[in-house]
Structure formats: C-alpha cells, structure tokens
Design brief:
Family: Belongs to the ETF alpha-subunit/FixB family.
Helix content: 25-40%
Subcellular location: Cytoplasm; Mitochondrion matrix
Subunit structure: Heterodimer of an alpha and a beta subunit.
Protein name: Probable electron transfer flavoprotein subunit alpha, mitochondrial
Number of strands: 17
Radius of gyration: 22 Å
Bound molecules: flavin-adenine dinucleotide
Order of helices and strands: HEEEHEHEHEHEEEEEEEHEHEHEHEH
Oligomer: single chain
Organism: Paramicrosporidium saccamoebae
C-alpha cells in the first residue's frame, strides 16, 4: 500500500517553519518519576525549541504530578489521568501519545532508553507509520548533533553511527548515562489536563517480582564492582559483595556469571544487560568480551583484576592487577576496611 503523508495543519506549519517542538514522555514507577527522564529533557534541550512533558498516571492525586511540576526545562506538562495508565503498558500508552501527536503536531518525541521507553516509543512510531511515510524511531541515542542528526552505538558499541532522519516526526530514545542530568528546579511548571479516552486494555498486568537490595542501584551507582565466571560459585560471590559493601558500591556481573546462576540476571552488565557508566568500575575475573565491554566502557575509571595478563579487559582498564582474585580480594577488602 502506498502511504501518503497526512499532516494536520499544525504539523504542516511546523514543517514549513522547520520549528522544533518537543514532547517528552515522562516515565514513572511506584509513585516516583524516573531520574532517567532528565536525560530525555537534556537531549531535547540540545535539539532546541520548546519542550513539554507528557505524563500519564492512574489518578489525579498521584505524587508524580507534583514531581513533574518541578522539572526544569519544560514549558508545561500535559497530564492524562486514567486507571488504565497505572503500569504504563505500551498497548494503552502508545495510542495516547499518538492522539497527543495528532492534536499538537510535535516535531520530536523523546524518552529515556529504559525498558519502559523502549517499550512505548517504537510502538508509537509503528502506529504513526501506518498513516505516514518516513517515521522510524531512533534508539539509544548518545549525542544530539541537531534536531535531525543523532549519534548512536551499533554492533554492541563497537561502532558509532551518525544518523539523519528525514521524516517530519523524530521519535528518539536516549541513553540515560550519555547525558548530563540537570538538577530539578523549584519552578512551577503548569499542568494542562488532557481528557484521555484510553484504548481498550489488551494486556493485563499480573504481577512483578523485584529483587530487594540495600546496595545502590546498578544503573545509578558511582562505583560498580562486577564479578565474572572466575568466581566459580554463588557462594564465592560473597567476596564481590564484601568489597562492594566496603566501597558503598553496586554489584554487577558478566553474563557467564549470570548464566551459571551465581547471581540474578538483573545484575548483568553488557550488550544484553545493563549499560553503566559509573565513576569507578572494578571488573574481577572477567575476560573483557566485547559484549561485556559494551556495557561498561564509558566508565570514568576502570580497574581490572585477572590472573591472565593477556586478558582483553586490560586493553580497556586504566589500572590492572594481575593475580588470583581469591588471594587479592580478601586482602584488598581488609585493607580498605582499615582505612
Ligand atoms: P570468561 O570469558 O570465562 O572469563 C573469565 C576470566 O576470569 C578469564 O579472563 C580468566 O583469566 C579470569 N580468571 C579465571 N580464574 C581467575 C582467578 N582465580 N583470578 C582472577 N582471574 C581469573 N556477556 C556479558 O558479560 N554481558 C552481556 O550483556 C553479554 N551479552 C552477550 C550477547 C550475545 C549475543 C553473546 C553472543 C554473548 C554475550 N555475552 C555477554 C557473553 C560474552 O561473550 C562472554 O561470554 C562473557 O562476557 C564472559 O564472561 P566472563 O568474562 O565472566 O567469563
């Protein structure tokens, strides 16, 4: 089927003026706005033009509304309230964004490249693409060159590509660790209520199981201590936990350690795990496979402990310690505790 662009008047006007107007999808969970939203706002600011927030919540007393009012860099927040939005399921959230797009004719949509953002924005792009050519989401953006030029990693971070969009609507998810997160200001951002008519719930939220931890969150920690296959067992991973707790660090792991059942898979760092960029990353008994490195190479300082002096991880490390982790770790933790 040949698709013909069906722009509304507002979109046509903006295309003609080449004016940037951004909508930022504000994600939240458990009554709190996600910090990653700040990266999406920072990216939108880089593109220029005005930016509004879009917030979908289950009820009008949700505490995230008050948080959203304090987001600096937004001219207003469009608020849609309905019980169906409680879990931000993509089947009901994406049609809401499409309806807002049709009403406002934004040139850009931004969201953080998180499991929620990755779930919703591509679906929104798919729905818009049914009517219009040239709509393609740009995912995991690490740099905004201008309103239609974005930098993103490909091949597990082994190549960096600069892409230029040609469609009238740019739909972009941004890597949270790649953008400076501005502080929330105290300014009051006005709220504009949108009378939502949510799509039918095609899916149902059954339950979620979250692992509880007193340690810092892996994605936001300033120090991460990660262990690999060399730990040999879940029991031995306590060496990693002890070092991490001494440093106030989050714990990460290689996929080999996760697959072997030493730790839960939410600790996996890498191409198919979490992408982290802490101030300090300590890789212990991890060889440095490209898929692991893709998730940690942007860390400010990298320390590697490995008994093989030729392990690839040393090519990425700022400091390397060649030796047996079972000897080094107890000694290191003890010395750090004495400080
Ligand atoms: P190994 O490669 O086995 O390395 C163990 C290291 O420990 C070695 O360097 C060894 O010298 C050292 N060592 C052994 N004993 C000791 C000791 N006593 N003291 C000190 N050092 C010791 N991997 C990820 O981590 N994250 C991902 O997201 C990921 N995604 C993937 C996606 C795809 C599509 C594929 C194909 C693979 C992916 N992998 C990922 C797997 C990746 O290729 C590697 O297999 C994995 O990272 C290896 O984990 P490791 O370094 O712990 O184990």
């Amino acid at each position: 089927k040949t698709k013909t662009p069906k722009h509304d008047t507002v979109t046509m006007f903006r295309i003609w003026r080449r004016q940037i107007s951004s909508a930022i999808f504000l994600e939240h969970a458990k009554g709190k706005l996600a910090t990653a939203n700040l990266a999406a706002i920072a990216a939108a600011r880089k593109a220029g033009g005005e930016a509004v927030g879009v917030l979908a919540v289950d009820n009008a007393t949700s505490p995230v509304i008050e948080e959203a009012k304090k987001l600096s860099g937004l001219t207003k927040v469009i608020l849609a309230t309905h019980p169906n939005y409680e879990k931000l399921l993509p089947e009901v959230t994406a049609p809401l964004l499409v309806a807002l797009q049709k009403q406002h004719g934004f040139s850009h949509w931004w969201a953080a490249h998180t499991s929620i953002g990755k779930n919703i924005l591509p679906r929104m792009a798919g729905l818009l693409a049914q009517d219009e050519e040239g709509i393609a989401p740009v995912a995991d953006v690490t740099e905004v060159v201008d309103g239609s030029t974005f930098v993103r990693p490909i091949y597990a971070g082994n190549a960096i590509t600069t892409v230029k969009t040609s469609g009238s609507i740019n739909i972009v998810t941004v890597r949270p660790t790649a953008f400076k997160l501005d502080e929330m200001a105290t300014a009051q951002v006005p709220i504009e209520e949108y009378k939502a008519e949510p799509a039918e719930m095609l899916t149902k939220w059954e339950s979620e199981e979250l692992s509880k931890s007193d340690r810092p969150d892996l994605g936001a920690a300033t120090i991460v201590v990660s262990g690999g296959r060399a730990l040999k067992s879940a029991d031995n991973f306590k060496l990693i936990y002890e070092l991490a707790d001494t440093l106030g660090a989050a714990v990460g792991a290689s996929r080999a350690a996760v697959d072997a059942g030493y730790v839960a898979n939410d600790l996996q760092v890498g191409q198919t795990g979490k992408v982290v960029a802490p101030k300090l990353y300590i890789a212990i008994g991890i060889s440095g496979a490209i898929q692991h490195v893709a998730g940690m190479k942007d860390s400010k300082t990298i320390i590697a402990i490995n008994k093989d002096p030729d392990a690839p991880i040393f090519q990425f490390a700022d400091y390397g310690l060649v030796g047996d982790l079972f000897t080094i770790l107890p000694e290191l933790t003890k010395k750090l505790k004495q400080q």
